[in-house]
C-alpha cells in the first residue's frame, strides 16, 4: 500500500485519505503500532491517552484504531449513536466457542435473545440465589482450614475462579460439575482468553490452520460442548426440575412473542456457554483484584472489617444487608482493575467524533482501565480509595467516566448478579479472615480478553 506521512504525530495514512487524523504514537512502516500492541497494550493505551488527549489514533497494519478517553465520546459510541457500531473483531472471533450467544450476536437476533433472557436477571429473581452464594463460600472456606493452620499460601485468583464457577452452575443451571469437568472449563476459558488476544493481531485464516495451538483449542471446545450439552440433555430428560426458577429453565421454556417458537438445543447451548464462561470469569477477577488491593491497603481492610462487625454482628451476610463500604471496595477495585478492561466496537458507517472523521470499518477502543485513570475525573487516580464511591462523591462525574460493565443497550446483563455475588463472597470471607499478600510478591495485570492478575494472587489467610 502506498502511504504518505501525515503532519499529525501518527505515522502513515493511505494516500486517498487526506482527512483530519487524531494525534497518536508514531508506528513503524507497514506494521504501524502492532509491536506495541503485542508487547504492552495496557501501557500503550494509558500513556497514549495522557500524551495525546481525548481521542488517539493508532494503526495496526492497514487497520485504523481510535482510542476514546472522554466520557461523552464513549457515550456517543455506546448509547447515542450505538446503531452505527457493532462488536469488535476480538469478540466476533470468539464465536469459535460462543457461537451466537448474547455476548457475540448482533441485530434483531441479539435483541430477541436479550428479551428472552432479561427476566432471569431481575433483581427479585437473583436475590433468591443469595443463600446459595454464601453456602458455596462457606464450603470453600472449610477447605482452607489446613492452609490457615499451617500458614501455607493459597492462590486467591484460583480460589475465586473455582468458587464462581461452582456458583454459576448452581444458581443459573441448578447443577454441579465434577472436578474433572471444572478443570476442562477452566482450561477452555484459558484457551478462549489466549485466542482472543492472538486473533486480534492475526488474519482470520490462521484460525483454521492445523497448528498445535488451534488443535488444542478445538479439543478443549469439544470437551466443553460435551459438558454443556450434558446439562441441557439432563434437564430435558427430567422435566420435573423445570419448576426451578433458574436461567436454564427460562431458556428452554421461553418462546418468541411473535412466532411462538422455542429455542432449539443449539441456541440454548450458545447462551449457556456464554453465561457459563462470562458468568464466572469476570466476577472471579474482580474479587481477586479486591483481595490484592485490600492486602496492600490495611487501613481500607480495617474499615471493611469494622463495617462487617457492626452490621452483621457475627451472622452471615444476606442480600438485604446494607454494606456501603463493602460495595465501595468492590467498585473501587473495578475502577483500578476492571475485568472488562477494553470494549471494542467497529464502525458500520462513517461517523465523526470530537471533530475527527471515523471511517466505516475502523475500530474504536473504549477502555475502562484507561478512562478510570483519567486525572480529569479521578483525583490521584492510582490510589486505592473506596470513599470515592460513598455519599455524593460520584454525582459530579459524567456517567461514562466509570463504566466497568459497559453501557447502553448492551450493558452487561449480569451486572446485578455479579455485584450481589461479589459483595456476598467478600463479606463472608472478610468477616472471618484477613488476607495478606505473600511477602515479596509483585502482582501485575495481564490484559487478555479479561484483566487477570498475572500469575495469580498468592496470599496467606489469617483468622481474625
SSE layout and pairings?
Layout: E1 3-5, E2 12-14, H1 34-52, E3 55-60, E4 63-68, H2 71-80, E5 85-87, H3 89-92, H4 95-98, H5 107-117, H6 123-127, H7 130-150, E6 154-155, H8 156-172, H9 179-199, H10 212-237, H11 247-253, H12 265-296, H13 298-312, H14 324-336, E7 343-347, E8 351-353, E9 356-358, E10 363-366, H15 368-371, H16 415-432, E11 433-437, E12 444-447, E13 451-454, E14 458-463
Parallel strand pairs: 4-10
Antiparallel strand pairs: 1-2, 3-4, 5-7, 6-14, 7-10, 8-9, 11-14, 12-13
Helix pairs in contact: 7-8, 7-16, 8-12, 9-10, 10-12, 12-14, 12-16
Features:
Cytochrome p450, 16 helices, disordered N terminus, 464 residues, three-stranded antiparallel beta sheet, 14 strands, alpha+beta
Give a structural overview:
By secondary structure, this protein is α+β, with helices and mostly antiparallel strands. The chain has a single domain, classed as Cytochrome P450 (Cytochrome p450, Orthogonal Bundle), CATH 1.10.630.10. It contains 16 helices and 14 strands. The strands form five sheets. A five-stranded mixed beta sheet has the order 3-4-10-7-5. α7 runs antiparallel to α8, α10 crosses α12 and α12 packs across α16. The chain is globular, with a radius of gyration of 23 Å. The N and C termini lie far apart (64 Å).
Amino acid at each position: 500500500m502506498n502511504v504518505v506521512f501525515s503532519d499529525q504525530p501518527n505515522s502513515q495514512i493511505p494516500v486517498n485519505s487526506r482527512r483530519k487524523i487524531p494525534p497518536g504514537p508514531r508506528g513503524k512502516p507497514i506494521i504501524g503500532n502492532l509491536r506495541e500492541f503485542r508487547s504492552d497494550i495496557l501501557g500503550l493505551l494509558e500513556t497514549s491517552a495522557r500524551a495525546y488527549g481525548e481521542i488517539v489514533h493508532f494503526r495496526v497494519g492497514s487497520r485504523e484504531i481510535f482510542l476514546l478517553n472522554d466520557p461523552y465520546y464513549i457515550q456517543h459510541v455506546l448509547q447515542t449513536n450505538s446503531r452505527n457500531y457493532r462488536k469488535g473483531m476480538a469478540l466476533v472471533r470468539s464465536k469459535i466457542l460462543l457461537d451466537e450467544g448474547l455476548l457475540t450476536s448482533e441485530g434483531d437476533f441479539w435483541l430477541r435473545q436479550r428479551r428472552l433472557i432479561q427476566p432471569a436477571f431481575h433483581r427479585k429473581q437473583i436475590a433468591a440465589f443469595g443463600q446459595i452464594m454464601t453456602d458455596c463460600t462457606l464450603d470453600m472456606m472449610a477447605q482452607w482450614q489446613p492452609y490457615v493452620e499451617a500458614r501455607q499460601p493459597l492462590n486467591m485468583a484460583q480460589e475465586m475462579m473455582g468458587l464462581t464457577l461452582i456458583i454459576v452452575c448452581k444458581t443459573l443451571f441448578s447443577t454441579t460439575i465434577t472436578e474433572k469437568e471444572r478443570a476442562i472449563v477452566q482450561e477452555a476459558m484459558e484457551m478462549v482468553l489466549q485466542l482472543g488476544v492472538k486473533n486480534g493481531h492475526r488474519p482470520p485464516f490462521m484460525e483454521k490452520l492445523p497448528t498445535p495451538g488451534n488443535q488444542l483449542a478445538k479439543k478443549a471446545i469439544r470437551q466443553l460442548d460435551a459438558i454443556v450439552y450434558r446439562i441441557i440433555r439432563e434437564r430435558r430428560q427430567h422435566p420435573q426440575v423445570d419448576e426451578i426458577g433458574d436461567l436454564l429453565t427460562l431458556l428452554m421454556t421461553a418462546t418468541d412473542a411473535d412466532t411462538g417458537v422455542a429455542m432449539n438445543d443449539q441456541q440454548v447451548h450458545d447462551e449457556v456457554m456464554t453465561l457459563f464462561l462470562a458468568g464466572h470469569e469476570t466476577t472471579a477477577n474482580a474479587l481477586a483484584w479486591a483481595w490484592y488491593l485490600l492486602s496492600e491497603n490495611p487501613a481500607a481492610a480495617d474499615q471493611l472489617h469494622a463495617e462487617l462487625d457492626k452490621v452483621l454482628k457475627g451472622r452471615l451476610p444476606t442480600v438485604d444487608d446494607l454494606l456501603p463500604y463493602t460495595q465501595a471496595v468492590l467498585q473501587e477495585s473495578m475502577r483500578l482493575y476492571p475485568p472488562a478492561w477494553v470494549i471494542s466496537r467497529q464502525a458500520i458507517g462513517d461517523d465523526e467524533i470530537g471533530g475527527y472523521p471515523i471511517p466505516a470499518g475502523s475500530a474504536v477502543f473504549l477502555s475502562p482501565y484507561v478512562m478510570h485513570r483519567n486525572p480529569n475525573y479521578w483525583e490521584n487516580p492510582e490510589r486505592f480509595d473506596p470513599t470515592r464511591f460513598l455519599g455524593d462523591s460520584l454525582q459530579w462525574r459524567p456517567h461514562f467516566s466509570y463504566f466497568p460493565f459497559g453501557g447502553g443497550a448492551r450493558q452487561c446483563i449480569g451486572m446485578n448478579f455479579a455485584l450481589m455475588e461479589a459483595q456476598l463472597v467478600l463479606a463472608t470471607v472478610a468477616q472471618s479472615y484477613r488476607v495478606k499478600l505473600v511477602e515479596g510478591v509483585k502482582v501485575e495485570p495481564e490484559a487478555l480478553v479479561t484483566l487477570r492478575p498475572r500469575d495469580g494472587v498468592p496470599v496467606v489467610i489469617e483468622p481474625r
